[in-house]
Design a protein that fits this description.
Layout: H1 6-15, E1 22-30, H2 37-43, E2 53-62, H3 73-78, E3 88-95, E4 100-107, E5 114-118, E6 132-136, H4 143-152, E7 158-163, E8 185-186, E9 192-198, H5 200-207, E10 212-213, E11 219-223, H6 224-230, H7 237-243, E12 248-252, H8 261-264, E13 269-270
Parallel strand pairs: 1-2, 5-6, 6-7, 7-9, 8-10, 9-11, 11-12, 12-13
Antiparallel strand pairs: 2-4, 3-4
């Protein structure tokens, strides 16, 4: 859970652990400036002279920074140059529309089962421990991003997409130039897909069989109005193959549905 009590409660607790030899720290911190390597050295590591192993994942969110005073990802990364562990990753995002910013620092390999609020600045690497992912950005997620996502999280089971921006680089497999053809993305372990806060383009991204091949038994949460539109009132063939094996559908904003709706989702429990 995210906490606002890091400076008041958590930091004093850590500073009393002077004989600690190993520390594995996972924190989600709100309403404070970013935690970086300088902060860790000054406020934690100097209080633990016997520490030999330090693994961490620290996420900080804030509205404190102004446009002319925004630490860059490079400046955050530089604060770890004299750490013994050289496998430290940082990721910084600023959302101009809301004034919200976030910073994530962690020792590699990443070991948590979830990775929330991923943006287009997704760091490289393979995240074999992660099972659940949420996406959020004020810039569109293009097809190439989802391809990279599927490769970075090979055991992904749950995915939430929150993005109201339409895709700018939509291309279809109608081109005669093979280099412009889309790769069909597969999520072999996916069992949950939530698109309630997503633009129509991301419905097309996941349900058009020219873009994505969904596995069997996926549970989806979608907006009925958008789903009806992209499936052409649940008759479109290019979306049927990804809908036929869905296990359950939760429709938000559902109105009267056509009689053939259950034929389009023959295996699904619809609610």
């Amino acid at each position: 859970m995210i906490t606002d009590d890091y400076d008041r409660l958590i930091l004093p607790l850590l500073q009393r652990m002077s004989k600690l030899e190993e520390l594995d720290l996972s924190l989600f911190i709100g309403n404070r400036p970013f935690i970086d390597g300088d902060h860790l050295k000054l406020n934690i590591l100097t209080h633990m002279p016997l520490l030999t192993k330090f693994m961490f994942h620290i996420y900080t969110s804030t509205r404190f920074y102004e446009q002319n005073n925004c630490p860059s990802n490079e400046s955050i990364q530089e604060t770890f140059t004299d750490f013994t562990n050289k496998n430290i990753v940082s990721s910084v995002d600023y959302f101009r529309g809301t004034g919200f910013s976030q910073c994530r620092i962690y020792t590699h390999p990443y070991r948590l089962k979830y990775y929330d609020d991923i943006t287009n600045n997704l760091p490289g690497g393979i995240f074999r421990s992660v099972r659940k992912v949420s996406l959020f950005d004020e810039h569109p997620f293009e097809h190439e991003f989802f391809l990279r996502l599927s490769q970075s999280f090979p055991l992904l089971e749950g995915l939430v997409v929150e993005n109201k921006k339409q895709q700018q680089l939509k291309r279809f497999k109608t081109s005669t130039n093979l280099n412009e053809m889309l790769s069909i993305i597969k999520y072999p372990h996916l069992i949950e897909l939530h698109l309630l806060q997503a633009h129509q383009d991301y419905y097309e991204q996941f349900f058009f069989d020219t873009k994505t091949c969904l596995p069997n038994d996926v549970h989806i949460r979608v907006d009925y109005r958008i789903m009806r539109k992209i499936t052409r009132n649940f008759r479109r063939n290019s979306t049927r193959s990804n809908c036929v094996n869905i296990s359950s559908v939760f429709f938000a904003n559902k109105s009267n549905s056509p009689e053939h709706l259950h034929e389009y989702f023959p295996r699904a429990r619809i609610c």
